């Protein structure tokens, strides 16, 4: 039976302040443009733009930033019924970005006492989650209680109701206490997920090691629930491993890169949308990679999310050179 929402994501919806002046360090950047940010928010905004019906679960501050986040997401086509307004004075996370050069970008996150990590389990509605086909879980939301328990509750509701759990590792060091804790909670979520998406470095965090090997990583995780594991390697592309042994490589498309952040979120939005629309893994990797190539050429992560038409146009323009 068709569900009301193709995808519901749980985690943070915050503010990005992206350097409006390029090719200089943060210290010399005087102006920033404001966008909605936060990896899981970016993913549902991207999926909405690609035509999916989406919802969001998260806590936002009771201030002008919270109002802006909710309004922007609603206008972007995201159902906000699962968004809770904080009543304890917690603030929005802020991400400042530095664009030193197309190769040298960094982000600086202000995440002390952020509202998103105060989402409580009792604020997560089972009835809302039951209306979704896919639940996207952000790893950062596992970094602190009570958000951690809220996410674990969401996962168990999804598991009990045959809702596909997609775990986006989304590792951000800022709110974690130590590497062991990351590994414990990442493993707990990963073992229950149907699909896991992360960079090689993020899988190393999950395993609490350095220099991990993709084959060993997937062999271990396939002992549990995952059916599909995607490991991203930046501009070198990505690898999708399916239970049963099939591996498919995704290649990066050429892009006139402005900045590198936003790649992962646009990739996830388009990959998940393509899979939901019935594309096979090889095609879904192309959609994800093409979306990322578009977003890295633009200034924001959320506002820059492409349409299906733009993605397919880029795929067709570069069909002859893809993977070459
Ligand atoms: N410079 C680039 N040019 C074109 N495509 C890119 C570039 N960087 C990344 N991509 C595409 O985006 C995908 C995801 O990128 P990456 O592995 O850097 O994820 P990420 O680290 O999660 O991204 P983010 O920087 O947003 O956190 C890659 O597999 C690739 O297809
Ligand atoms: O995920 C965040 O909180 C920050 C993002 O919104 C930011 O645009 C980014 O780093 C995307 O990779």
UniProtKB/TrEMBL annotation:
Signal peptide: none annotated. It is an enzyme of class 2 (transferase). It holds the Pfam family PfkB. Residues 6-307 form the Carbohydrate kinase PfkB domain. The keyword Kinase applies. Pathway: Polyol metabolism; myo-inositol degradation into acetyl-CoA; acetyl-CoA from myo-inositol: step 5/7. Keywords: ATP-binding, Kinase, Nucleotide-binding, Transferase. Transmembrane segments: none annotated. Its EC number is 2.7.1.92. Catalyzes the phosphorylation of 5-dehydro-2-deoxy-D-gluconate (2-deoxy-5-keto-D-gluconate or DKG) to 6-phospho-5-dehydro-2-deoxy-D-gluconate (DKGP). Belongs to the carbohydrate kinase PfkB family. This is 5-dehydro-2-deoxygluconokinase. The gene is iolC.
């Amino acid at each position: 039976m068709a569900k009301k929402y193709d995808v519901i994501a749980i985690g943070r919806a915050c503010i990005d302040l992206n350097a409006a002046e390029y090719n200089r360090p943060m210290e010399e950047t005087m102006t920033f443009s404001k966008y909605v940010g936060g990896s899981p928010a970016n993913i549902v905004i991207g999926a909405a733009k690609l035509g999916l019906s989406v919802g969001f679960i998260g806590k936002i501050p009771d201030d002008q930033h919270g109002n802006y986040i909710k309004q922007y997401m609603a206008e972007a086509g995201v159902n906000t019924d699962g968004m809770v307004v904080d009543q304890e004075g917690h603030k929005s996370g802020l991400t400042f970005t530095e664009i030193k050069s197309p190769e040298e970008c960094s982000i600086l996150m202000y995440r002390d006492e952020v509202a998103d990590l105060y989402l409580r389990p009792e604020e997560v509605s089972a009835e809302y989650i039951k209306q979704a086909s896919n639940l996207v879980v952000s790893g950062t939301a596992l970094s602190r209680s009570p958000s951690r328990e809220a996410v674990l509750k969401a996962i168990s509701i999804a598991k009990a109701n045959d809702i596909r759990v997609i775990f986006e590792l989304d590792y951000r060091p800022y709110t974690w206490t130590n590497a062991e804790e990351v590994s414990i909670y990442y493993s707990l979520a990963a073992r229950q997920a149907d699909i896991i998406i992360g960079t090689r470095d993020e899988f190393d965090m999950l395993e609490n090691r350095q220099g991990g090997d993709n084959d060993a990583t997937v062999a271990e995780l396939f002992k549990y629930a995952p059916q599909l594991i995607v490991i991203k390697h930046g501009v070198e592309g990505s690898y999708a491993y399916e239970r049963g042994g099939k591996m498919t490589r995704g290649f990066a498309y050429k892009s006139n890169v402005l900045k590198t952040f936003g790649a992962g979120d646009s990739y996830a939005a388009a990959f998940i949308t393509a899979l939901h629309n019935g594309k096979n893994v090889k095609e879904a990797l192309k959609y994800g990679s093409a979306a990322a190539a578009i977003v890295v050429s633009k200034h924001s992560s959320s506002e820059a999310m492409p349409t299906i038409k733009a993605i397919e146009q880029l795929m067709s323009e570069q069909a002859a050179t893809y993977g070459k």
